[in-house]
Amino acid sequence: MKQKTAFLYLDTGGGHAAPARALARALEARHSDDSVSVLHHGFAEGMPVVRFFFEDGYRMTSNYFEEGYVLFYQMTFSPLSIHFGNYFVELHGLRKLKRFLRQEGITKVVCLHEVLIMVTRKAIDQVNPSIPLITIVTDPYTAHPLWFYKKNMDLVVFSEKLKQEAINKYHYPAERIHTFPFILSPAYDTPYTDEQKKAVRERLGIPLSKPVLLIAGGGEGLRHADRIVREYISSGMDACLLAVCGRNRVLLRQIRAMIRNVPSESVRVFGFIQYMADLLNIADCIVTKGGASTVMEVLAVRKPVIFSSFIRGQELGNVLFAVHSGAGWHIPKPADIIQKAREVFSNPAISEEISHRIASLRLKNGTDELADFIHDFPVENKDREQS
After folding, report:
1. pTM of the prediction?
2. For position 85, what pLDDT does the model report?
3. Is the pLDDT of residue 321 over 50?
4. Over 70: is that where the pLDDT of 72 sits?
5. How far is the first Cα of the chain from the last one, in angstroms, to the nearest whole number?
6. β-pairing verdict for 3-9 and 108-111
């Protein structure tokens, strides 16, 4: 009988859904003879209230009211807040999740969002406690305490720093923590060759002669990207600007209105796209935020990066890692961002040095290795559970 592994995620940015998809694909590709992957949105259809609160709420506050998001994030550190939030989630989703596990015949569960951990643990315990639960902490350096609150499951982390924090600060059992390289799409395994970059530019109609400045912020777009675009237009820089707005339709409309009278070879704007690796590889300089997947994808293509923003607390560790590694800079002001991009374009030695620094980090894609771990993880693990 084939294993049937469920990957549970939420659409709060791209940092949870993207690794879920990458792992699901890798598991089926590497173990197609005895494995089936099921991608499952943790807030199924018929749960509009919790979807609005956690997904739309995240989208709106992180882009337009960061102070409110940070306040809420800090408030949820307390056990009282954790239990209240979990009660809210269970009230709407426990029965649906139990039904999903039964109907699909799930034999293993991989959870990729901290909000889903407690309700998933309860659903498994009520359906079949022998189903293994593996939680993947998608934040590699700075993680919310909720990831470590329940200790009766195995935990995957992406850095030794976070492993030690889980053990020493949250008293998580060391034998249940597993460290792997970060999960990325196979598209980021190797930076594009010059020929591949040329082919992408030709396909998208981007001039071969102009340097490319890419503005992107993951699935929800980049906060204040419109200000950076406005500064770029007024600067008269001889380059091509690519702005990716993701699911942020307000931002997309704002930028489209701004560039009505700007030549298409100077500014291109995109919504949510499936070929982000193409744009990252042809960019000569990237402006982005501190989301985990975004940071690791930028490092994978070995390009100079400017962090215009990051969510305090949640994304600080990602930015510190990239900046301290010599991959780029944290520059919040639009005028200073454009000036730094101009400096990068005018001095090829900057890009070459940054590329060498990133290469020396010897980062690797952990997707295949982690997919094998999930496949080989034993089902009979009831005796390892802790309260």
Report:
1. 0.84
2. 77
3. yes
4. no
5. 31
6. parallel
CA angle, 331 as apex, 328 and 336 as ends, to 5°?
110
Look over the chain and give the mean of its residue pLDDT values, rounded to a whole number: 89
Q: Distance (Å, rounded) from C-alpha 316 to C-alpha 310?
A: 7
Contacts for 192 with CB less than 8 Å, ≥ 6 apart? 200, 278, 281, 282, 301
Ordered by where they begin, the domains of the chain are 3-183+366-384 (3.40.50.2000), 187-360 (3.40.50.2000)
Measured at the alpha carbon of residue 220, what is the angle toward residues 219 and 226, in degrees to the nearest 5? 125
Element (H, E) at 348: helix 348-360
Residue 258 CB burial class (10 angstroms; 0-12, 13-18, ≥19): middle
State the pLDDT confidence band at 87, using cuts at 50, 70 and 90.
Answer: confident
- Contact between 138 and 16 (Cβ < 8 Å): yes
Contact assessment for residue 39 and residue 200, using Cβ atoms and an 8 Å cutoff: no
| The one-letter amino acid at 110 | V
- How many Cβ atoms from other residues are within 10 Å of residue 332's Cβ? 12
